[in-house]
Amino acid sequence: MHVPWENRPVRRSDLVAVAIAAVVAAGFLCGVRVDNLHNGLLALSFAGVGAFVLHRRPDHREAQLFLAAGAAQAVLFTGRQVGETAPSGLGSTATEWLAWFGVWPLPLVMVLVGLTIMAFPDGRLPGPAWRAAFVGTAIAGTVLAVASALWALDYERAAVSTAPPFVAPGADALRWVFHVAELIVFPVFQVVWLGCVISRRARATADEARQLLWLIASVALSGVVLLAGLIVAGSPRAGLLTLPLIPLAAGFAIVESAYETLVREVRTATQRMVAAQDDARRQIEQDLHDGAQHRLVVLGMELGRIVDQANERGDPELAGAARAARDQLLEATAELRELARGIHPSVLTHDGLVLALESLVERSSVPVDMEIDAIPACDPQVEIGAYYAVSEALTNTVRHSGASRSTVRVTTCGTGLRIEVADDGDGGARMGRGLRGLADRVQSVGGRLSLDSAPGAGTRVTVELPGR
Amino acid sequence: MMPVRVAIADDAVLFCEGLARVVAESGFEVTCTVGDADALIEHVRRDPPDVAIVDLRMPPGYSAEGIEAATTIREIAPQVGVLLLSQHVEAHHAVRLIEDFGHGVGYLLKDRVVDLGSFRVDIRRVAAGDVVIDPDLVRRLVGRNRDRDPVDTLTPRERDVLTLMARGRSNIALADELGLSPKTVEAHVRSIFTKLGLELDVREHRRVLAVLAFLRR
Q1: Distance from C-alpha of A299 to C-alpha of A315, rounded to nearest angstrom
Q2: Burial of B107: CB neighbours in 10 Å, binned 0-12, 13-18, 19+
Q3: Is B30 near chain A, with CB under 8 Å?
Q4: DSSP assigned state of A163
Q5: Which of A65-69, A167-171, B59-63, B115-119 has the lowest mean pLDDT?
Q6: Helices A245-288 and A206-232 meet at what angle, rounded to 10?
Q7: Which residues are within 8 A (CB) of A293 and not within 5 positions of it... i.e. 6 or more apart?
Q8: Which residues of chain A have a CB within 8 Å of the CB of B62?
Q9: CA of B176 to nearest chain A CA: how many angstroms apart?
Q10: What value does the mean pLDDT take over residues A179-194?
Q11: Do A293 and A337 form a contact (C-beta atoms < 8 A)?
Q12: Average pLDDT, chain A
């Protein structure tokens, strides 16, 4: 279901995204710093994509993770902006504390971003082993972050020139331990993420695999740019600046897939409904055939015997009355027969589409020229769609068009069928109940119906039914 | 005179029994009433009747088992006439039946059994090797609107003749039914064939087939 943007309710996720954007915007007040730019863009990208996905799929867990990662990234970005530029408007204490937030959260940001990767695309970690692996990264990240926060161990790497607000004793002894730990932990993080994505890809459904492909492709692209930048310019900047593309690609994959899933579900449901309707109609026709029609004919035979017996006994009055009753009964059976035919064309089920169409044409009171290509055996739903298309169009021609002739053309169209019914009548036809029902049926098998009926120019109904 | 012997196959028990009773009361000998094609074939093999009255739709598939059964009967006992009954009459079935069987074949709406007088005649005609086609189907085909239709050029009398001809009546039966002399009927028939642009064929079934095929166009 498509809801126009202006009618969508404001969600809490929107407020979070706006807050993230505000934090990033505040960071940009300090100017654009090339080596910190990717953090701001990543924050915006994560937040924007998260909010967008949550509009379409409320409670989507991965999108919620995106918001969380965006928030962490925004804090890191703006802290670094302040730390790098030390804006004159801020007091030195405020600057120091804000800059501090641009340094120590890095390992936690890595953990959160890692979580979005490991949980992509449904927001759930794939199995207990990967949950354990994630907990491992979270513990390692927290330890590094706490150490970094207490002893100001990572200021150099963050290119924050502001002094730390405080430093716990023993920083110098810890510094090299911290850097060695970072050297080990961050690559391990990346191995864990990669392993998780690969393992998920191996067990993924087709739909999930397609979404993962977007993630993998965007990561690969970013990696190639990073490598090229390092080789050509000796700088990772270009690669870092492509990182915001990854959340964009991932979000696109989620939204695109959610739509696809929805469309598929709706189509399957409609198809099931149409098929169930056809089954019910077939059953009713069969029941009429087996039940009422036979009973009436048997009753007619009884009346026929009464006619004979009355004649034998020389009772013309009784014979006449019985004959009149029998004739009425025959009219009733004839009506019932046509009713049953309208409910479900057994000729289609038993004799195939071509003969069923011929039988329709034969019954039309407006002359019909019919051309049928050598058509392949089709899906029953396609055949019944084709039958109803011709039936409905011819009925409309006979009832409303004032046409003197009609043409029916059935051609193959890929592996499906194209049906065209045209008449030379008054035109000006509109989609009535019958055509609308037909259009629903046609759409349920992924086909199209078009009505072309300018006043005075005849009417043309075209139906395309795709094969499988 | 030996009574005409009739076998009846229809899966609708009520109808089957009702039909057997009225057929028996009409002076025919009912040799069996069965509910499916296999039982009918088995019976015909043992004790061939003069006519087998067969429901077109029967178990197991309820499609055209009746025609399949008729084909088998024609193979194992060519002298047995087959009269197919159906809830709907379709031109393509009629054409197929005449093409495949040629003689001793009938194709009627089930409702026809209600008019015992003409149904009796129909059974006898099939037993005698004639072709019998349901009047409803013929009326539908003759009355059908077509573009530049040569049927429009027929006189009302010729239309009557055409209608009866399409139903499988021979010239003599036609003459009898319309109260005309056989010579007049022959003249009408020739005129019809000329107007419709058909080859005049002396064999009855070829004639019916030609007319039906023309009317279906």
Answers
A1: 21
A2: buried
A3: no
A4: P
A5: B59-63
A6: 160
A7: A333, A336, A337, A340, B87, B110
A8: 286, 350
A9: 23
A10: 92
A11: yes
A12: 89
Q: Is B217 on the interface with A (CB under 8 A)?
A: no
User: Which chain A residues are within 8 Å of B110, Cβ to Cβ?
Assistant: 293-294, 297
Tell me the count of A-B CB pairs closer than 8 A.
96
pLDDT single digits (tens) A385-396:
999 999 999 999
Give the whole-angstrom CA distance, residue B53 versus residue B72: 14
Residue with tokens 């934090």: A23
**What is the C-alpha separation between A81 and A413, in angstroms, rounded?**
61
CB of A353 within 8 Å of a chain B CB? The answer is no
- Which residues contact residue A296 at a Cβ distance below 8 angstroms, ignoring those fewer than 6 apart? A329, A332, A333, A336
The radius of gyration of chain A's CA atoms, rounded to the nearest angstrom, is: 37
Residue B192, pLDDT > 90, answer no
Residue A8 has pLDDT above 60, yes or no: no
Residue A461's pLDDT is what?
Answer: 95
Q: In what order do the strands lie in the sheet with A406-413?
A: A368-372, A406-413, A416-423, A459-465, A448-452
Look at residue A1 and tell me whether its pLDDT is greater than 50.
no
Q: In angstroms, how far is CA A378 from the centroid of its own chain?
A: 27
Q: What is the dihedral of CA A76, A78, A84, A85, to 10 degrees?
A: -170
Q: Do B114 and A366 touch (CB under 8 A)?
A: no
